[in-house]
Prior knowledge:
Layout: H1 2-9, H2 14-26, H3 31-54, E1 65-70, H4 78-87, E2 91-94, E3 102-106, E4 116-128, H5 139-146, E5 164-167, H6 173-183, E6 193-194, H7 198-206, E7 211-216, E8 225-239, H8 245-254
Parallel strand pairs: 1-2, 1-3, 5-6, 5-7
Antiparallel strand pairs: 3-8, 4-7, 4-8
Amino acid sequence: MAGDQVVDEIPKSPLTLHFCCLLRHIGQSNIDLRILFLMRYLLITLAIAFLTGCSPDSTPAPKPVLEIYTSSSTQPWLAELYQCAEQNNVLLSISNPGASDISLRLGEPENLTSPSYKIDEEEILVVTHPQAGVSSLTLTQVQSIFSGQVVNWIEVGGSDEPIDVWVYADGDDVQQVFNFNVMDGLKVASSARLAVSPERMSDSVGNNPGAIGILPRRWKMGNTHETFVASETPVLAMTRSEPTGGLLTLLSCLQK
Length: 256
């Protein structure tokens, strides 16, 4: 019969075998029902072919991954860095300075050998506890305090309170900017106490009535009083080599 010939010509895929079994079970007398099952089979087959044909031939290219490093003072720029990365389909991974594709820091290092690009500016401030009793300081007074020549606030018109000097480690970018622009070759007093980050500096000065320290403006917070602007310094994005591809795109976004 014509129905039998049609069934015999269908390729023997698992789906075909399933329908063939159904057709044989229905019987040769139920021609209309057999035709209905054949039509449903063809529709399902066409739908599968359509979906298969519409699926992508290949997976999207993976996003480039860039290793980044920020000094503690430049962490406020991390949000902007991640925003630029998202806008330009770049993934970021935190790394150490030696292995990073891009590093953020305040001011130029002493021996600059790699490409660097200015993305912003930041002020470096000298801050005190409000109870120190001084509204502002001169450059000479700041030098005298940080070098240990002045040890009590009363010597610079403040309260009768011993001065507690806070600085960063010599290799810290903020300390390097401060030493270059303020100290002018003078050594920081050996009695000065070390803060490991701007956040710790802010807390230490804000909690000690006799304290004085150094903060980037974006880190000035809490119970601290601005007494002197040490410098206005560039925020630098440094790379190991001339930037290309995703790194170049990221830098261009940061400079806008």
